[in-house]
Amino acid sequence: MSNAPTIDNRRARHEYHILESLEAGVALTGTEVKAIRAGGASLSEAYVRFRDGEAWLLSMHVPPYRQGSFSNAEPTRPRKLLMHKAEIVRMQSRVAEKGLTVVPLRLYFTRGKAKIQVALVRGKKLWDKRADAAKRAVEREIAAHVRR
């Protein structure tokens, strides 16, 4: 296992109920790969849109690579997701349902290739977030009692 970072979208787990997830490849330039390996990418504002039978990752921020000079790409450019056509069609039809969207959860490297875990999600209501926070607090208290 290399020392390539795993970039998590912690905000997505807080903001959404995750219904299903799958792995997709990401079309990146060479300097983007180097910048991500240096640990610099943000998934917090990113989302997936479907256009012309293709999946596109929008608003993922990859900072310019320091040694990249003119070959650096725009930090928030749209990036194509590499998925099977059946997966794209299935996700696209599910997104057509009310209140569903597709967001990235994790960006990581597998055998030298950049992969992204995308999930079909439904937004949480405020009371759902409060209930989750209360549940985590109770679990922390129980864990503290068990340790004592």
Detailed description of the structure:
This protein is about 30% helix and about 35% strand. By secondary structure, the chain is α+β, with helices and mostly antiparallel strands. It has a single domain (about 5-145), classed as Small Protein B, Chain: A (Beta Barrel). The chain has a 7-stranded antiparallel beta sheet with strand order 1-6-7-2-5-4-3. A hairpin with a 2-residue loop joins strand 6 and strand 7. The mean pLDDT is about 85.
CATH fold title: Small Protein B, Chain: A
Number of domains: 1
User: What is the terminal-to-terminal distance?
Assistant: 36 Å
Q: Structural class given helices, strands, pairing?
A: alpha+beta
| Rg computed from alpha carbons, rounded to a whole number of angstroms | 18 Å
Strand content: 25-35%
Helix proportion range: 25-40%
What's the β-strand tally?
Answer: 7
Q: What count of helical segments does DSSP give? A: 4
CATH architecture: Beta Barrel
The spatial strand order of the largest sheet comes to: 1-6-7-2-5-4-3
What is the element string, with H for helices and E for strands? Answer: EHEHEEEHEEH
Poorly predicted tracts of residues: none
Q: What's the CATH H-level superfamily name? A: Small protein B
What profile does the largest beta sheet have? 7 strands, antiparallel
Q: Quick one: overall form?
A: globular
The CATH C-level name is Mainly Beta
Question: What assembly state would you assign to the polypeptide chains in this entry?
Answer: single chain
Mean pLDDT: 87
